[in-house]
Amino acid sequence: MLIRVSLEQYEKEYLSPYAMLSANSKGRLVEEEQCDIRPVFQRDRDRIIHSKSFRRLKDKTQVFLSPDGDHYRTRLTHTLEVSQTGRTIAKALRLNEDLVEAIALGHDLGHTPFGHAGERALNKVCPFGFEHNVQSVRTVDILEKDGQGLNLTYEVRDGMLNHQTKCTPATLEGKVVRFADKIAYIHHDMDDALRAGILTEEDVPKEIADVIGHSCTDRMDSFIHNIVFTSQGKNDILMSEDVDKAFKAMRQFMFERVYTNPVAKAEEGKAETLVEILYDYYLHHKDKLPEDCLALLDKGEEVERVVCDHISGMTDRYAVAKFEEIYIPIGWNKL
């Protein structure tokens, strides 16, 4: 018996009746021969980890632009924390860990440089709008592997597309990642804010802390345990009413005190302007786009969308370097 088949059989015997089984996947955009070792979601996980867009996450902002210190989160460390949190919940609920991990590792592949500042800038200037979750799916469908895409399964792509609060994933594994994303950023953004001196634990309102904990570790533990025990035996992923209320209040507190904090966000206006200027430049200098983008134009893709592809794929460092190359004069002796 093939190893993959035996693993699929194990899933059928062990996983929850509400889990998404690898053998029951709706399949890929393009049908291909199955791996003899790996079930489909494990294979998707591997494809994401080996992608260029995944590697670029290490140089993309999470919350703090160019922070002074080695321990602040980046988009990559955020992604890994989402994966770890999601897998913990999935294992406890006997859901498909491979599917959770693949969705988590892929959910932010389409994110812009400079975090949500870059996303706001592209959404403002592009006539089609810009949302990083949609771009993440476009990245794995069209942009990766020199235009071939990664050809991921429907369930992974659905989870990536629907990881935001306003969306509803088709699988419980996707719902786990949607929660894990928020748990991770509330946890690590608070930790980074404490490290930066923007907040202290005493700033967290007592009515929130008394429900979910008085430290980052306690809150993480509360969220995960509550989801596991509230969701057991149910065809849904839920928090209890009191913890859900505190969770939303904590999220609102973070938006008010960190995500819109003038100290934490002092440079975001510059980042947005930089992205808008780069967008305008490439829109009017299509010949300066890289070959993979030119190939998309040759296929009939709209130039505005292709320019968004190019800029959203940039790291913070590369975006700044391109801006300097295009607009900042250099000394004659460096030419």
Task: Report on the architecture of this protein.
There is one protein chain. The protein has 335 residues and is mostly helical. It has helices at 3-14, 40-49, 52-56, 75-92, 97-106, 115-125, 132-147, 154-161, 172-196, 206-212, 216-231, 241-259, 268-284, 291-298, 303-312, 316-327. Helix 4 (75-92) packs across helix 9 (172-196) and helix 14 packs antiparallel against helix 15. The longest helix has 25 residues, at 172-196. The termini are far apart. The relative contact order is 0.13. The model has no long low-confidence stretch (mean pLDDT 94).
Q: Span between N and C termini?
A: 64 Å
Count of discrete alpha- or pi-helical segments spanning 4 or more residues: 16
Shape type? flat
Q: How many strands in all? A: 0
**Which spans of ≥5 residues are poorly predicted at pLDDT below 50?**
none
Based on secondary structure, the structural category is mainly alpha
Largest sheet: none
Rg computed from alpha carbons, rounded to a whole number of angstroms:
21 Å
Give the overall average pLDDT. 94
Strand content: under 5%
Order of helices and strands: HHHHHHHHHHHHHHHH
**Into which percent range does the helicity of residues fall?**
55-70%
